[in-house]
Amino acid sequence: MGKLYDELAKDYRVREGLKTCINCGTCTAICPAAEFYKYDPRKIVDIVQSKDEAAIEKLLKSDVIWYCGECMSCVTRCPRKNAPGLVIMALRNLSARLGYFVCSEKGRQLYPLTKILTGNILNYGYCVYPDTFRWEDHVESGPVMKWHLEHKEDTFARVGANFKGDGPGILRKIPQESLDELKSIFDVTGGTERIEAVNKFSEEKAAEMGMDMDEYLEETFTHISPGHLNSEED
Amino acid sequence: MIYQGKQKIWADYQKEIPDDRWYYVRSCIRQNFFPGAEKMFMEICRNVLKKDFYESASHTTCGGIAYHCDTIPQETVMTIVARQFALMTEAGYENYVASCITSFGNYIEILETWNEFPELEAKIREMLWKACRREFNKPKYVAHASDLIYKYRNLIAERAKYRLINKNTGEPLKVVEHIGCHYSKMFPSKGVGGAEYPYVLCGMVEAWGGNVIDYPERRHCCGYGFRQYHIKANRGYSISNTHKKFESMEPYHPDMIITNCPGCPYFMDRWQYAIAEMEGKTYGENGYGIPVFTYEEVAGLVLGYDPWDLGLQLHQVAVEPLLDKMGIEYDPKRKYEGLNHKDLLKPELPGVLRCC
Q1: Domains of chain B, with CATH numbers?
Q2: Are A109 and A219 in contact, with CB atoms under 8 Å apart?
Q3: CB within 10 Å: which end of chain A, N or C, has fewer?
Q4: Contacts with A, B 54-93, CB within 8 Å
Q5: What ipTM did this prediction achieve?
Q6: pLDDT, tens digit, for every residue of A2-16?
């Protein structure tokens, strides 16, 4: 593998999203994440364009690249037509590939995210699916959602959905041939390789932390350490 | 003078939206949480306005949420999208309409990237052929479903049974419009009205009789943030952003909120419940929340559809205060019934947020 910057520069999102940053900080001013987390997209873009290998490696192993919400509000406002949000996506992609994501608490969350989202896509053809949306994991969705999920066959039918039915419609059963095509796409495009890499690095990290994978899943899905938020003192 | 300036900017970002013959793709989030909205979209387009909207059972997620949670490579999401385009091509359509804002942004980003880097498009075509033995034409036009309801807004107004008017005062309802970030923040020219003055929802509200509220955090993200919601440990980010918006709109006393994004109505609805339970704070009148709607739900109400056929019983914030203001007739006893009056019991009542 070449230098980290060279790897980043191959990513179309960096080629699209990083021309010449003038460090004005407009992205940070508009950023919802910067208001909440100890996060400054201006600094991240500046580190990438500095091509400083040690600084980029530190970034790839840090929590900060995982604070962005990818709302892309920064893209609208950048006076130089950069896209800091796309640069963040490229950094996360490289961190995942190299296994650096397990070095930070927010990075380790890639394990539950991968398990939930790619599981839903490959098993059902949806990113979000009623059978895997556990109310206990989403108590903020309220008592109406709890009722909805408890009666989902009836509540979906009431509003005209085709839940698990054949043919088109809301929450239809995606045909097996289509799910097979999705799996084939994952195999051909590197999606399967990515899942396997995230699993391998996560299993190694779980062993290092003395956890089995169920404990690691729970830890990475729920645990938050002090120190991430602007409202906390350094 | 200033208003003319805004009108001029809006005019610069008007889109020539085709009138008919669309290939429709659904939204993962909306199918789960606001299924009646998609039902209403097809009802309006197909049955009320007699337009040709085609849906294939074989289409899938676009992978957009997984992509923005950084769990799949760019080539994977691009090839999933290429397969969707192949299904459109095979069905004989050229206009492509997405129910989801994340999908809409995803499609636009991919097409723009392919325009910039043709070698990447060629690579994706090869990958799609290898994986699925399919080929595709790029759509002539990609729209978000709200673009279509915006285009048809006056046709809907002509058929309106109710208007966005407070029947007790005769005054227009005060409406907050919230646009999904990926509608036009990345590619302003692709959204009606651009990113600074998006007009897609304003046009509907005005056509149907309401007044749009301007407030300081109008363009702030709802707080979804993809991984910032899907991971339990990160949800403080999500609720904090929603809280910021509600604190900002509160002084303007909105009667309702209209949205065009899958996640936004979910978060603005559910986080009002969570804020009420955590802080004891409610933003509507008399202990209620501010009802949050998709644009199809609002269109359905205006056209006189039964609120429970629209799925408004799946909202956590009670919609009844808004229905009463508009003078909409509804049967409270039928709210939580299934088909054929089946008894489905009722949801528990929250501790603080007033519900019906």
Answers
A1: 17-145 (1.20.1050.140), 162-334 (3.40.50.11810)
A2: no
A3: C
A4: 55-61, 63-66, 68-76, 78-80, 83
A5: 0.98
A6: 599 999 999 999 999
